Amino acid sequence: DFLCISLANGFIQLRYNLGDKTVILQALQQVHTEGNTWHTLRAGRVGNEGYLDLDGHNVTQEAAAGMSALDTHTDFFLGGVSSLNLVNSMATENEPMGFSGCIREVLINGRELKLTASDARDGANVGDCDGTACGYTVCKNNGTCRVENAGFSCSCPQQWVGSTCEQSVYCSQSRCGSQALCVPQPQLFSYICVCALGWSGKYCDNKITFLTAKFIGNSYIKYTDPQYRKRDLQHSRISLNFTSNQTEGLVFWMGKAEDEDNDFLALGIANGTLKIVVNLGERISVPLTYSKYSICCGRWHAVTIVQNQTCIKVYLDEDLILFEDIDPQRKYTALNYGGICYFGGFEIGKEVNTVTTGLFQQGFIGRIKDVVLFQDSKKIQLMKAEGYNVYNGDDGS
User: Fold this and answer.
1) Which pLDDT tens digit goes with each residue over 240-252?
2) H-state helical runs in the chain
3) % pLDDT > 70, the chain
4) Do 2-112 and 213-392 come out as alike in CATH topology?
5) How far apart, in Å, do the first and last CA atoms of the chain sit?
6) Any idea where the EGF-like domain is (predicted)?
């Protein structure tokens, strides 16, 4: 499988192969190869339907029957490759050996790549395209960059300070404690502190412990499973107790929160009822719902989800409520969740609705306890994981 974007005879092309055939899309207009004209390019695919947009002019390849997932496990190359032996011959047919020009602001699945020597894994024959110390987006938050003898300086908008305008004026002298995040509140001419896991209080300066995690919105816990490499991923299991304060929310997401092709197992609340979603490969997300009665609000519920290859069992308060074979063909049978489990939501800046592509609408508000993975004898100690905006729910308040 491969996906590549190239310049051939003055035209931008998108080429991709999902395992069955190669698709080629070509922009309608040529790019300017002289002067300093910058072009905006957006390209990608939804399933096996490709799209290519150059400066607002869109080309779409209608989807046809066939594979719908991009299965690649190689490095990401920009501008060229270290060896053509690494590249499918169909991806480089009738193309130059490498790109000559400037590239900036590269986003892959919504995440910007840092094109610096310290962030890239490797590279060769790449220089500074801007030619000055200012470069691209050196000054944050719409600051203005000025070249100086010793480098550069930033002229910051009214509400931002710092050498690169990176800090809100309201947070420049905040009292937020250890590992806390300062969130500016311009309308109040003030700020609030968002506490790291294990801390509470107005300034996040009170150390806390708990067994029951309380989620208040914009909260998350990220747990990394230390036994992941020893797990039998064809037979996964997770159980927990939870009580919700709202009719919508993501309770847990077992899998990475990075791109569309990662496997995951998720539990949440939609319209007041239980919703389970499973993806074992090719982004085939299978939602399972149980709507016999509402699970909101205030009552504790025990949920256990068991994955036996493509068979999914769900127990609610010890009763078997769902038993589904999501793929009788057994094409994908393992839950390759990467050893990552999220509870209540995702990292700050990652919207639940966006990461889950609309499967769940918002983060969880309520309490979670007694989380057990697989057949482990011990419960997960949630407060020893990573997270923010999560508090002590042991007292039930």
Assistant:
1) 999 999 999 999 9
2) 89-92, 352-355
3) 86
4) yes
5) 52
6) 130-166, 167-205
Contact 393, 369 (CB under 8 A): yes
The whole-number pLDDT of residue 372 equals 94
Q: Give the pair of three-digit tokens for residue 126.
A: 């790449």
Q: pLDDT tens-digit profile of 83-115?
A: 665 666 655 565 556 777 888 778 777 677 777
Q: What's the CATH code, domain 2-112?
A: 2.60.120.200
Q: Distance (Å, rounded) from C-alpha 20 to C-alpha 226? A: 37
Using CA atoms, how far apart are residues 78 and 328, in angstroms rounded to an integer? Answer: 40
- CB count, 10 Å around CB of 31? 15
CA distance 386 to 347: 10
Task: List the structure tokens of 247.
Answer: 């009719």
Structure pTM? 0.70
Q: Hey, what CATH class is 213-392 in? A: mainly beta
Indicate the burial class of 111 (C-beta count within 10 angstroms; 0-12, 13-18, 19 or more): exposed
Taking a C-beta distance cutoff of 8 angstroms, is the pair 211, 369 a contact?
yes
What are the structural domain ranges in the chain? 2-112, 180-208, 213-392
What are 40-86's pLDDT values in tens digits?
888 877 777 788 888 888 877 665 666 566 655 566 777 777 666 56
Burial annotation 262-277 (CB, 10 A radius, 16+ → b, else e): bbbbbbbbbeeebbbb
For residue 142, with 0-12 CB atoms within 10 Å meaning exposed, 13-18 middle and 19 or more buried, which class applies? exposed
